[in-house]
Amino acid sequence: MGRLAAIICLALWPVLAQAQNASNPHYPVVVLDRTAGIIGIVDEVDFRLPLSFERVLETVPAPKVLILDSPGGSVHAALAVAARVSGLGMATEVAPEGRCYSACSMIFFAGETRNAKGALGVHQISSDAGSLEAGQFALADIIEVLDDFGVPTQVVAIMLRTPMDEIYVFDAVEKARFGFDGSPRVDIARGVAAPSPVQPLAPAPAVRPTAPVISRQAEAVDLTDPQAWIGKTITGELISNGKRWYSALGADGRTTFVTTSGKRLTGTFQIRAGAVCYLYDSAQSSACRTPVRVGTEVRWLDEKGAYVSRIVAVDDSPLPAPPPPPATRNAAAIAEAIAPGTCALIVAERATLAEAQAFVVASVEDTRFVQGFLTKAGLIAVSVGLLKPEEVAPVMEAWTQSGRIPADSFCSDGSGFVDVVTLAPA
What we know:
Elements: H1 3-16, E1 29-33, E2 38-41, H2 49-57, E3 65-68, H3 75-88, E4 91-94, E5 99-101, H4 103-109, E6 113-116, E7 119-122, H5 132-148, H6 153-161, E8 168-169, H7 172-177, E9 181-184, E10 233-238, E11 244-249, E12 254-258, E13 264-272, E14 275-280, E15 287-294, E16 297-301, E17 307-315, H8 331-337, E18 343-350, H9 353-363, E19 371-375, E20 380-387, H10 389-401, E21 410-412, E22 417-421
Parallel strand pairs: 2-3, 3-4, 4-6, 5-7
Antiparallel strand pairs: 1-2, 6-9, 7-8, 10-11, 10-17, 11-12, 12-13, 13-14, 14-15, 15-16, 16-17, 18-20, 18-21, 19-20, 19-22
Helix pairs in contact: 3-4
């Protein structure tokens, strides 16, 4: 942002943050500098925010920067705005002396560049969904979106470990390490916020939503009429990244839902007032979604009018085949590598064995106690030795402060590992 624009924003911010009048008809979304393309969100994230944001975008020819000062609110409303921010390639900033907490952080993470000048805080993700099953489904999609935004895995871990009635506020060191200090958004390799000296990371291309591709079969089906969907397969995609999910609606009222990660949910469905209401087998309440045409696309709105997906096809396509079963856990090998009453000090996780070996060569001076583990997520965890419970806190504090191990290192009892791998280079 140019210096003049920054001065304008700072001068107007105290007024705009409290203004809801004719000058700001789409509050809490406000225009700070129309010519420079600077927009602000200055209050709670609620179900009205996506529509307000769209209306403001119509008045700003070239939106470039989004300034945030919000206590949070609706996760799904935040994700809808985040998808637009990412698609437009906008930069995001937390206002100086401002705060961006909870759901607001989802919007911040979507920025092409992200600069938290004020307070940035996160906590456990709570879904707008009413049931546990629907909440877990939403949580999986939210985590996928954060991954597509290049949010480090350490940040996601911090979110999941912080109770919903608390806020974890990142300090200046963490902002710099995670790329929240104005650095370009990168495709962060499993949580590493800075390019590695061994294998530099290339900037990730901005996610640009594309127009839905509708199959020829789907042209004969009304994408806004769920009654016409019975006996067919619905194909939807996340607006933020284009990843697809599938839902088969059987004539017997049964349904199978395949999430973007390949998880299969089964249950029943009903069509009520133009909405498809899913009740999964392990859920206690249903979750309804309504297809609504907006321009050239059909959005998949929840009960509150928020959306993260669109419908791209309804046809006779079969559901994708189930994924292969996960690898069998080699409990004996893990127990032998991590002795009872100890934990493995994990200093890095890498996507491939070659990357983990390269990390050891470049970053570990004493390799006598190095051991690798395959995690349930398919990553290679690098351990530099075992610690007893009474050693964990003092050793990690001393080694972190001296720079011997990364600040996001942790000690694992092995419950998240599948097998032991050899990290000695071939």
